[in-house]
Amino acid sequence: MLNFTIIKLTLCLIIGILLAEYIGIPLNVSLYLALALWVGVAVLFILVRQQTQKHIWFGLLTYLSAISIGILVYNLHDQQQFKRHYSQFITEGHYEQATLNIRERLKPGVFNDKYIVDILEVNHKKAKGKVLLNIKKDSTREPYKVDDVIWTSADFKTLANPLNPNQFDYRNFLRKQYVHHQIFSDRSSLLTLRSKRYTLFGYADALRSEINTKLKAYHFKPEELAIINALILGQRQDMSKTIYDSYTDAGAIHILAVSGLHVGLILMLLTIGLKPLEQLKNGKLIKTILIIILLWSFAVVAGLSASVTRAVTMFSIVAIALHFKRPTNIYNTLAISMFVLLLFKPMFVFDVGFQLSYVAVFAIVTIQPLLYRLWKPKWKWTDYLWQILTVTVAAQFGVAPLSLYYFHQFPSLFFISNLAIIPILGVILGLGLIIIVLALVNVLPQFLADAYGVIISAMNAVMAWVSQQEQFLFRNVPLDAIQVFACYACILSCIVWYIKPSFRRLVVVLISVLFLQGSWMFTSHKHSDDAFIVFHKTKQTLIGQKSRTALNVVHNFDSLTFAKDKILSNFKVGNFMTSQTVDSLKSVYRFRGKTLLVIDSMGIYNVQRFTPQVILLRNSPRINLNRLIDTIHPEIIVADGSNYKSYLARWRATCSKRKLPYHQTDDKGAFILR
Fold first, then answer.
1. pLDDT for the residue 119
2. Given its phi and psi angles, is residue 397 left (phi above 0), alpha (psi -120 to 50 degrees) or beta?
3. Per-residue pLDDT tens for 530-585?
4. Strands 473-474 and 550-555
5. What is the pLDDT of residues 292-327, one digit of tens each?
6. Terminal CA-to-CA distance of the chain, rounded, Å?
7. Residue 377 domain-assigned (yes or no)
8. SS3 content of the chain, % helix, strand, coil (to 5)
9. Which of 9, 371, 471, 645 is deepest in the core (most CB within 10 A)?
10. Residue 258: partners with Cβ closer than 8 Å, 6 or more residues away
11. Does 555 fall in a domain?
12. Do residues 126 and 120 lie in contact, with contact meaning Cβ atoms separated by under 8 Å?
């Protein structure tokens, strides 16, 4: 596979993007570096093109140039490095006048509707950049639409870091979409300046809204409408958590992500439907151009997610190859599509959907033929089911390490849900497209809409049943980056050996197994340290004492809240914990020579036999902090999330005046002693 030049160049491009992300190379340096290297490539090419002897230097310089392009495109897409970025015109803590353009509607939160917006002006100065806009929910108002332009006066707040260890880093997630600040507002503080569509995204959003308006007239249930939006239009904002979780736990969430299967079906339909154009002069060229335009129009309607963009790019290359009647190599096609996408969207390399979709396709084209050869069914229907099963298992082989790393769960009944749905998924997709078209022109028969609704409900019921078999769903499975790399090294070495067994390849397999075992031993050693943690939890107290792989927890939650809380499960998975005990809250804790005194709402701290180094204030004790400091002389004051904000502000001011370290968990995150 590595003999293909485009694959090597794509790997170099990815290396460049990773270097720019983790090392941080300035824009001007990356620009001069890329120019110098590509000039060197051009000069060397002129010098060696007439020579018959191959030189390693030309190839090496080309690969270095591809790396430099990766660094450069990373920097060119980061608007924060440019003078007109809005961050140059704002002061945090001050209200700024801003003109915003709605770019994308996100899944609503508990209290706020969420939008990604482009900044047009800040304080009457033209500006660029993207911001997360949080608008307090108002059921009496229609949500904003893409391309709406609004004005507001608001404080640009920096996105908060995660407050607890191993918590999902939403700030880093948005940063990789070039969003660095957020605005909180309500509808009364927003003034609509324009509500006309003028971009492709706006027209696509208007089309999706029109489709939903038409479909609602045919009495689809909300969960059916949500599946249609996800399955065909690529929009999952309105999907309930119950439906989403059932597809996830059943191992079939990929069905709801518009990807290669969906785009491949559309390409097939377009190829058949536009075949009459081939009779015209230059008809094949016209047909190919139309197919590519229609494929990308579908991608825009589906929201240009990483998976649909990857699929449309790949099938566009396939359509071009079909036009020129050139045989295509799937590895080359995948590499070309990845190379092109990363040139325009370098941050896709960090997108989970992008990673999973490419790994799944690589696994299918590599592993599925090997699995399929294990058995030769005699009947066509068994052969068809066997093909589906091998494709599903091959894809799971590919995505399992990444899925465990990101989601920490493995649905072992994935093959049941896939065998039940995939054979008819083409019919569901094709019929869905027909229903949308008929609904748009107002000729959709009600019986056809009802029949489609029944099919969608039946699919939801199958997913719900599979997801309820919880004994087959492995949750909270820990896996870190080193182990993911070791798993893929082991899988790849086994595949290479299986394709062409040899002693040398067997040695590589055994080395990869040792590497896998070593990664587990290293990870176990890395997480074997002890720690005392005061977690942040609003209006509650949560304390954990880690001893190697065991966690002792104390809290004041009710049983239902404690069972549903994710803070501890995230911490246990991230630190490879195997056991947990629950204890009652105490007034004094000792850890590694330090004594921690807990002062609760009673405000009692009469200590005479020991001197605590750490004071934890919880449940808003009514104390004179100056007197406490003079009496106990602590090294640090810690206040958790169970305290009133007015008390926290007063304690912060006192500690600042006394020059005493102060740790407030809703600001600095969990307090950890190691």
1. 93
2. alpha
3. 999 999 999 999 999 999 889 999 988 887 777 778 899 899 999 998 888 888 88
4. unpaired
5. 888 888 888 777 776 788 788 878 887 787 777 666
6. 47
7. no
8. 55, 15, 30
9. 9
10. 231, 232, 233, 234, 302, 305, 307, 308, 311
11. yes
12. yes
What are the two backbone dihedrals, phi and then psi, of residue 117, each rounded to the nearest 5 degrees? -125, 145
Q: What backbone torsions phi and psi does residue 529 show, to the nearest 5 degrees?
A: -75, 160
Q: Are 346 and 18 in contact (CB under 8 A)?
A: no
The tokens of 614 are what?
């750490």
Is there a contact between 546 and 575 (Cβ–Cβ < 8 Å)? yes
* Inter-residue contact 388 to 422 (CB < 8 Å): yes
| pLDDT score at 388 | 84
163, 566 contact by CB (below 8 A): no
Question: In whole angstroms, what is the distance from residue 320 CA to residue 51 CA?
Answer: 34
User: Among 51-65, 142-156, 405-419, 638-652, which is the least confidently predicted range?
Assistant: 51-65
Write the CA distances from 337 to 6, 174, 314, 372, 445, integer angstroms.
10, 24, 5, 27, 40
Q: State the DSSP code for 407.
A: H
What is the rounded CA–CA span in Å between residue 422 and residue 420? 6
pLDDT of residue 342: 92
> Rounded to the nearest 5 degrees, what angle is found at the Cα of 365, between the Cα atoms of 363 and 368?
75
Closest CA to 163 of 547, 478, 534, 563: 534
Which structural domain, as residue segments, surrounds residue 9? 5-76
In one letter, which amino acid is 606? N
546 within 8 A of 530, measured Cβ to Cβ: yes
pLDDT at 619: 93
Residues 542 and 657 in one domain: yes
Residue 468 has φ and ψ, to the nearest 5°, of -80, -10
Structure tokens at 469: 């078999």
* C-alpha triplet 140, 145, 147: angle, nearest 5°: 145
379-437 pLDDT, tens per residue? Answer: 888 888 888 888 888 888 888 999 999 988 888 888 888 888 877 777 888 888 888 88
C-alpha radius of gyration, the chain, whole number: 29
The Cα–Cα gap between 329 and 216 comes to: 44
Q: Classify residue 185: in a domain, yes or no.
A: yes
Q: Are residues 29 and 146 in the same domain?
A: no
CA distance 40 to 32: 12
- Banded pLDDT at 54 (limits 50, 70, 90): low
Residue 343's pLDDT is what?
92
Give SS3 for 59.
helix
Angle between helical axes of 222-232 and 241-249 (0-180°, round to 10): 60
pLDDT class of 52 with cuts at 50, 70, 90: low
Do 538 and 630 lie in one domain? The reply is yes
Sequence letter at residue 298: F
Determine phi and psi for 599, rounding to 5 degrees: -115, 115
Question: Residue 603: is its pLDDT beyond 90?
Answer: no
Question: Cα 448–449–451 angle (5° rounding)?
Answer: 65
How many CB atoms neighbour CB 166 within 10 A?
A: 17
Which pair of tokens denotes residue 74?
A: 């990373």
CATH code, domain with 171 = 2.40.50
**Residues 46 and 90 occupy one common structural domain:** no
The 10 Å CB-count burial string (b at 16+, else e) for 440-471 is eeeebeeeebeebbebbeebbebbbebbeeee
Which tokens sit at 435?
Answer: 């229903």
| Side chain identity, residue 160 | A
Whether residue 267 is contained in a domain is answered as: no
Q: Minimal CA–CA distance to 78: which of 119, 115, 130, 37?
A: 130
Residue 538's identity, in one-letter code, is: T
